[in-house]
């Protein structure tokens, strides 16, 4: 096996202690397997992209001793690949236009919740737009047993999600015309021949959708490992929205040691090189071949 891993930050702000944990875990997993580690800038969501943030993230990673083994991939340059995948799915009849507004979906969810205790998109536009203009494009998920997607997460253990009752038909192209994260990530992982995805546990919930989409597109499913997210003092996931502080580039070793501790790896290191040797060895013991 040729191990290929990736770190896929969204350039919505500078790296913080939470995103460093995901970067470090993916980097250590690639090193522990003697594989490649590739950075992908997930700037498909242009309204959320902050100018300069991507370059800042790449510079911070380099400063912390993490260098992409190949030129970084930019989602903003991959529109043709997403369009080609979308067309393939369109030919299979698996996707359909949806005319529901956010408001209508929210209203129907409350309604549905009362009756079936489900929060999934109720499939209102599956059989037609009911005279409404098309907004988003959704992928039809299977019904019944086929809707249950299972996988074994290398950190979190066995997982299952019922796409029909827990998610519903999900958007591949958004109402604002942008490609949805789920489509972009699956097409990018497949085109880069990614074998191992290591990322934050906030994305555990997206994984079944991604596996189903891989099956629809006939591309391989990588191995998944989701590391615990870092929370702030109020128990919210660290993010720009919850006011996470940018990493201090003057103290990379302190931040790295702290990130490793979050991954249950305790090392005392006096240099960045020593830090990576010690943590890679520890990681390999737990997750290596
Ligand atoms: N861009 C996503 C994020 O920053 C990560 C996507 C992924 O690793 O699949 O949360």
Name of the CATH architecture of the largest domain: 3-Layer(aba) Sandwich
Strand order of the largest sheet: 3-2-1-9-10
Distance between the termini: 11 Å
- Count of individual domains: 2
The CATH topology of the largest domain is: Rossmann fold
Percent of residues in β-strands: 15-25%
Shape: globular
Order of helices and strands: EHEHEHEHEEEHEHEHEHH
What structural category do the secondary elements indicate?
Answer: alpha/beta
Q: What profile does the largest beta sheet have?
A: 5 strands, parallel
Specify the CATH homologous superfamily of the largest domain.
HUPs
Please report the number of helical segments. Answer: 9
Stretches where pLDDT is under 50 for at least 5 consecutive residues are 113-118
E-strand count? 10
Ligands, deduplicated: glutamic acid
CATH hierarchy class name of the largest domain: Alpha Beta
EC number: 6.1.1.-
Motif ('HIGH' region): 9-19
GO biological process, one term: tRNA modification
Binding site for L-glutamate: 6-10, 42, 181, 199
